[in-house]
Amino acid sequence: xxxxxxxxxxxxxxxxxxxxxxxxxxxxxxxxxxxxxxxxxxxxxxxxxxxxxxxxxxxxxxxxxxxxxxxxxxxxxxxxxxxxxxxxxxxxxxxxxxxxxxxxxxxxxxxxxxxxxxxxxxxxxxxxxxxxxxxxxxxxxxxxxxxxxxxxxxxxxxxxxxxxxxxxxxx
Length: 171
Description:
Blueprint: H1 3-12, H2 17-40, H3 46-49, E1 50-52, H4 53-59, H5 67-77, E2 95-97, H6 102-111, H7 115-118, H8 129-142
Antiparallel strand pairs: 1-2
């Protein structure tokens, strides 16, 4: 079984709820630790963002028997990097390159509602508070519902100055 297959089995198989919950919690704890290591070392974090899979996973706090969790970490970070890693065929000797787009990573963490990740204090090493606040504001704005529908009490689009309900609503 490949590391990816083991990751999918552990993260998708919820037949035994206790084992599933323990597996997912262990993944979240390791994921948080890995991101904290990468962000804390920024901008000189090259040794934590590229290398051979087995060595890189060890640097990020994964043990030898946790390569499936490391593959899960790579699977999660893939949308936030410049060139995705092939997690399905990853072996101990596979090269891993995390060309992280930090702004996109922060955005994707918000998208995933992963507050344990986007609230890491180590983000202050990457962006000033104002930048994080701006990304958060832009993210929230992108999630607002917008409607092109004209409300009954809105000004009429014909330019008459009347309310829409008293002008063109029936035309």
